[in-house]
Amino acid sequence: MKKKVLLAVIIIGIISVFGIIAVKFILFRYPDTLPAGEDPELILPLISFANNSFIGGYGTVPWGTHNGIDFGVNGSTVIVAPHNAYIDDIKFWYNDGGGHWQTNVRLWLNSQWKLEVVFESWALNESYGQVQRDAIIVNTGQYVIANQTLGTLLYHGEGAHIHFQVSFGDAERCPYIYFSPSAQATFAAQFFLVNYTPYWCM
Question: What CATH number does the domain containing 140 carry?
């Protein structure tokens, strides 16, 4: 009986240790690039607005709920990291709703704050989608600093854009709120030139 109890204690101990390790890996895969309890201060994901053709805001839009800000382009545009971060995931996939291939780049700031920079070149076939995927020059697990190039958003058709998303835990937030003051000023000036939604946070 004592041996069975001892064996059970050992098994529970081993499971507990592996459970703690698993939780730490899930929640703390990388060192924090944003101290816990602080809000991020972000730069804009576009290095230049020369090819910016439209901006769509976050929130309730005519076709539903939009969980980020869209920066449309009419030509190839360099895209940069909006904050010091680790590249947490890169996902190349077919968007059934949009009818195109895209690549999502997720950036880790800490266990709560994540950014998503989605390269939507409007590639209507996998070959063009792969060309866009290959234009992203960072890799999963890589550390990047703010303003470092993530890749180039290509133009494969009208509708090409970067979808920029900010998440705290499981909830998306309007990215504009977290732009630095200079980024907010630049964004606001550009928004009023090319906006297709009435506001940037709706």
Answer: 2.70.70.10
Max alpha carbon distance in the chain (Å)? Answer: 78
**pLDDT tens, residue by residue, 80-108:** 999 999 999 999 999 999 999 999 999 99
In terms of domains, do 78 and 4 share one? no
pLDDT of residue 124: 98
Whole-Å CA distances, 125 to 72, 122, 134: 19, 9, 15
- Residue 202 within any structural domain of the chain: no
Q: CA 43 to CA 168: how far, in whole Å?
A: 17
pTM, rounded to two decimals? 0.87
Number of domains making up the chain = 2
Q: Give domain status of residue 146, yes or no.
A: yes
- The closest of 9, 186, 163 to 95, measured between CA atoms, is 163
Residue 46 maps to a domain: no
End-to-end CA distance of the chain: 65
Tokens for 131?
């060309």
190 closest CA partner among 81, 45, 88:
45
Which residues does 37 contact at the CB level (< 8 Å), separation at least 6? none
Taking CA atoms, 198 is separated from 63, 83, 202, in Å, by: 14, 27, 8
Domain that holds residue 161: 52-194
Q: Which residues contact 95 (CB under 8 A, 6 or more apart)?
A: 101, 102, 120
